[in-house]
Amino acid sequence: MSDEIHTTREPDGTTHTTTIVDREPRRSGGGMGMMLILLIAVAVAGFVAFQFLGNEKAETGAITEAAQKVGDAAQDVGDAAQKAVD
Asked: Is the pTM value of this prediction over 0.85?
């Protein structure tokens, strides 16, 4: 940090003093920016995870339904075979 003092003397004898204070810029915004990026990354990861879990549930439900239909069809075949024997 450096300070500069400039004094100007007018022809009528009055003086005017200007002080320039040079300070380092504040760097507090970097942490906020990084936190915002991290928050966005977590939100995107959560969205993708919920989409994957939703697809997994739909797939599991479809497999369960198909297995139930196969089981019902096997039961129908078994019933028809039993009637054919009787």
From this structure: no
